[in-house]
Amino acid sequence: MFDWISGFIDAVGLAGIALLMFIENVFPPIPSELIMPLAGFNAASGEHNLFAVITAGSAGSLAGAVLWYWVGMRIGTDRLKRLARRHGRWLTISPDEIDQSNAWFKRHGGMAVMVGRLIPTVRTFISVPAGVSEMSFLKFLTYSTVGTVAWTSFLTLAGYWLQSQYEKVSAWMNPVSTSVVILILAWYLWRVATYRRRVPKEGSTQ
């Protein structure tokens, strides 16, 4: 994948970096842990301006976050609660838990969005509950920008400073990303298995 990403960035330039980061936020299998260190390496070799690379990567990533935020807004609380009544076990959440989640998100959502943008896999989907809970777009965009720029800058600067050794960033980050995915999958399976115990009334209708 390194060669493909490198060739794409060489061919399309900064717009290619933005597009790849947008796709990474919509379709996670193309990881930012590969895209941005490689873009940073290209900046170190003089092909692109470092600030422009960070800006392009952050802009593409934010565009993906806004798309998921819009999806959450379109789904809305009422529709999500109807889905929870019908398919609560597989969604791992009940209508009451949705209300509790919205209340929590309205109190702490800004920090959750900012930190979530720093966590592999989580950063892709943290925008959905922000939209569902109707967090103001300005607040969402502000916290998302802080988290996104921090993450994008870290990866880009790692590739910039390591230069030809930028593959080490991927070698270190890939196991971290894999571990996060495994933990999320394990958490989901646990939520499915314990659904009746947590919400017996809804679970009895599944």
Automatic annotation (TrEMBL):
Residues 30-160 form the VTT domain. The chain crosses the membrane at residues 7-30, 50-71, 140-163, 169-190. It is a multi-pass membrane protein. Pfam families: VTT_dom. InterPro entries: DedA_domain (IPR051311), VTT_dom (IPR032816). GO terms for cellular component: plasma membrane. Keywords: Cell membrane, Membrane, Transmembrane, Transmembrane helix. It is found in: Cell membrane. This is Membrane protein DedA, SNARE-associated domain. It comes from Loktanella atrilutea.
